[in-house]
């Protein structure tokens, strides 16, 4: 397994947010994590990235324990986090935002230029706006910038936290298409937290459902999308 969490317990102060959460991500998989607000989805992502320190349990990436590492060390291991709300550097131009994504890699000038070219080929709208301040971009363009910024570090694994949040439906489709291409074309495994359960199940291979900080159910996405309990609770029907 590329990524494995075992009996993870995480807290905010005295409040326990995750209760013995376990999950696995295999080679070249997309694994989605769905659940209602407050279910612990984002806490799990932050626990993987070292932004929240689990009180107990284990999280390993390619066999290496992550729970004792700092966030920047986890990024150097090859894990990139595309956060909820995008969090671009609003007062910096698009290209500088991209450069910030490469801070942990010692690229030569030529290699950095090649990464810019790769991102602009993948996201043509960013090329058109390369000198524009990131804060002036639309929500969809900012999400694309957040994804491109993450890819600048040549990651081995990408974590997406609510990639469709606040986006128009037509843009949501485009963002999910990009996520699928990252997985299929670049062979990068993906963990995706997503409120839009239908879209998450539609593009992922497997899914874990969190409820009150616990894994309620897990299985193949194509099976869960037809599960009556999942339909009623998360798919509106």
Query: What's the CATH class of the largest domain, please?
Result: Alpha Beta
The counted number of beta strands is 10
Largest sheet: 6 strands, mixed
Structural class computed from helices and strand pairing = alpha/beta
CATH architecture of the largest domain: 3-Layer(aba) Sandwich
Query: Shape from CA axes?
Result: globular
| Whole-number count of domains | 2
Query: Major sheet: order of its strands?
Result: 6-7-8-3-9-10
In CATH terms, what is the fold-level topology of the largest domain?
A: Rossmann fold
Tell me the radius of gyration. Answer: 17 Å
Q: Indicate the percent of residues in helices.
A: 25-40%
Distance between the termini: 34 Å
Count of separate DSSP helical elements: 10
Order of helices and strands: EEEHEEHEHHHHEHEHEEHH
Average pLDDT: 93
**Superfamily at the CATH H level of the largest domain?**
P-loop containing nucleotide triphosphate hydrolases
Strand content: 25-35%
* Poorly predicted spans: none
List the SSEs and their pairings.
Elements lengths: L2 E10 L2 E11 L4 E5 L6 H8 L7 E6 L2 E2 L5 H6 L2 E4 L11 H8 L7 H14 L1 H5 L10 H13 L5 E5 L7 H18 L3 E4 L3 H7 L2 E6 L2 E7 H4 L3 H7 L3
Parallel strand pairs: 3-8, 3-9, 6-7, 7-8
Antiparallel strand pairs: 1-2, 1-4, 4-5, 9-10
């Amino acid at each position: 397994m590329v990524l494995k969490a075992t009996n993870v317990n995480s807290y905010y102060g005295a409040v326990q947010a995750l209760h013995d959460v376990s999950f696995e991500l295999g080679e070249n998989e997309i694994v989605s994590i769905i659940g209602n607000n407050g279910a612990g989805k984002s806490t799990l992502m932050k626990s993987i990235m070292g932004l929240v320190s689990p009180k107990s349990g284990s999280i390993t990436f390619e066999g290496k324990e992550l729970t004792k590492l700092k966030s920047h060390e986890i990024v150097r291991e090859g894990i990139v986090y595309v956060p909820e709300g995008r969090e671009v550097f609003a007062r910096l131009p698009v290209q500088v935002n991209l450069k910030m994504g490469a801070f942990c890699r010692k690229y030569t000038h030529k290699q950095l230029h090649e990464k810019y070219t790769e991102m602009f080929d993948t996201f043509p709208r960013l090329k058109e706006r390369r000198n524009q301040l990131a804060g002036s971009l639309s929500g969809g363009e900012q999400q694309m910038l957040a994804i491109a910024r993450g890819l600048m570090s040549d990651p081995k694994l990408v974590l997406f936290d609510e990639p469709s949040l606040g986006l128009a439906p037509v843009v949501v489709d485009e963002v999910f298409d990009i996520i699928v291409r990252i997985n299929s074309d670049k062979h990068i495994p993906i963990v995706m937290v997503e409120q839009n359960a239908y879209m998450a199940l539609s593009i992922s291979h497997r899914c874990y459902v969190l409820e009150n900080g616990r894994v309620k159910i897990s299985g193949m996405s194509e099976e869960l999308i037809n599960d009556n309990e999942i339909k009623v609770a998360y798919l509106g029907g």
